Amino acid sequence: MIDRRMTPLAAAVFAALYPAYQANAQQQQARAASEGTRLTPVIVTATRRQENLQDVAQSVQSISTEQIEKQALRNLTDVIGALPSVNIVSSTPSRNSLVMRGVSTGSSEFYTDSQVAVYLDDQPMTSISQQVDVRLIDIERVETLNGPQGTLFGSSAQTGTIRYVTNKPDFGGYSGQSDFEIGTTKGGAESYDVSGHVNIPLADNFAIRAVGFYTFEGGYVDNVLGLSYLGDVDNSDVVEDDWNEYRVTGGRIQGRWSINPAWEASLSLIQQSSDASGAWETDPALGDNKISRFFNEYIDNDWYQASTTVKGDLGFAELSMTASYFDRDIVYEWDNMTYDQWRSSEGPGVYYALYNADYEFGTIFNNQKQNRYAYEVRLTSQGESRFQWIAGAFYEDVWDWWHYGSQIPTLTSTTEWQAAQYYACYYASQGYDIDCPLPDTNIQYSNRYDKSVRQKAVFGELSYDLTDRWSVTGGARWFEYNRRELDINQVPLGLPAFQGNDTGGSTETFGKDDDVAMKFGTQFEFNDDVMAYLLYSEGFRLGGSNSTRAASTGELPLTYKPDQLKNYEAGLKSQWFDDRLLFNASVFLMRWEDIQINDSSGDPWWVRGTFNGTEAEQKGIELNGTWYLSDNFSFEFSAFLADPEFSEDLVYPTDGTIIPAGTTMPISPRRKYWASVGYDFPEFTAGNFWTRMSYQYQSEVWDSITALTGDIDDVTPGVQRDPDLLLPSWSTGTFQFGFTSSSKKWDAALVVRNVFDETGYTYLNGSDYSQVDDPRYRYLRSLQRPRSVYLSFTYKW
Predict the structure, then answer these.
(1) Fold adopted by 36-796
(2) Is 525 a residue whose pLDDT tops 90?
């Protein structure tokens, strides 16, 4: 990066020599890291310009390629274990909810927007309850920006941003790497992983980089023999040990073209497919990693992203233009015996009256799609001036669609179908566009949802060096959005869910709004190794509209506003003892205003929507550090301590439920710790042995916001909550012992994950079906994979 205090001539010379300088710097960093003698600079682009991580005046963590390999990190769950301020809820692979700094209303949100933004390089790929899990193959680093990032990263960066930064094609020479891993899980099946990448310069100014991977994770959950609730059907046809299997395949190809010394263009295409079969839940009535299901469950998740970036040196600034397209398809089908037989005997409703005698059951299904077009133009100042700036414009068009429902293979032979035909013909006689009789179908309930959001924004940040060591920063983002949502409910397929008014189960809403998010900060460098900062930043989510049918009851508003998170932060970044010790700390206070709450507790069922609640507050401290105690012995750690709570009473408008002030926010741990110890044995002729051990701990969390209105007191005096909805604290460790050849060309290692075989929850299902006289299917939970032992081998050329 060009130093702004350089003379114009020096800056020009530096720009011309920068590629060679960068390659040499990377070699020096790699050499220093391999020798373990001292800390090496970590360059990040969290502020949309290249900076040393220790110079960034906000809480940012970065996990590099070397750390990913050293810590045996494979996926999003592994990475988040090492990050102090992020936690994940994962019911099955591909269904990931992220929480940053403990600001959340739960992990089962589908209608509200995400609070955590996920980027692949400069392209957004955010979703709400199914965040993309990018396979960590040939990734330069993973950056996490903790706290609101509204000015530079926009909506859905309300609580923070996670960025995957890929390794780019290199003009310098041909290189590659192959990785192999095979392992087994206690009480489960074998797993294996094959991946690799290659860098090919086709000319002095053009190179491509290709990545490929295939992974198979063997199952460890047994589908055991069982009877349905009524005892009339068993699941013998799908009983299987090690039922849950997971496969991931994919690749990436990137091209990079240096058009001339001032301009560069790149093109990237990334594709990843995964399929998970079986179930990941444990039924506590059956024992750890055992379940009784009546259908071969599956979830397929396919996505790809195409992007292009053009960068140019305009002298006074760098121009960056990025365009991307993201396409994702998710299909799943799950067993629904518990709900179908429960509602047959217990569930009220206009269509259930005659259905009670049938007791048939089927599956839940979903076919879900997302398309996202995103464009950003950005100017970043260059040169020696004390005054630096970034200015940009952003446009995004996101389309989400799903067809969700339940299906019963024998639906047309049930009394419910007879009742549905009666209602179809009745409404057809009243002039509604409904077929009489209804065409045959096995779809008992159908929900079609169609949402499009178009957002445009302009943003900028300004910084000024008051002195050589003291600077101030200000930023703002103006955004405007148009949101359209169409929600169609039919019971069964073809028969609109007529209730409340004559909308026929179909509602279409439109919303438009605009606002501004702000940022202010200052930093002071005490010396070259110690810096302190103060920061105020804002994050937001877009507002929207509820259905006219729900709003007509007067219980829910027709529209809801954007909600805002205001962050007040102070931090210290420092290096000590001749760059052997790094210690960073930040303290923060965040106020969450006009909280968007998705309310599905209304009666009847279609009185559901989003309203703006009151306020919540989160305050805490983040710590992270690295210490090279000797040339061979290193220690890394991170910690998060917080106090997340609703600061005002939260009242549900549909049923008057109150969550009192002082209640802990759901999916929000008060404590999280991670530590890693590594030792490199002295090198001999053939190479050197090394060993590492990492360990993480997370305190207990409530399952969801609805869990805060249950049956036993644990947090707030006078409030009764259900202890079964409390995910207990959990921990896990990873041990490695390996050998690196003297040529640094190959490595071999023994890797033990969950070394102490601990059974931490990764997800809890709040359904209890207590009305049914059967102890099964109550508070199902997904447990982390049991102890797994792997052998890995890496070859580089």
Answers:
(1) Maltoporin; Chain A (2.40.170)
(2) yes
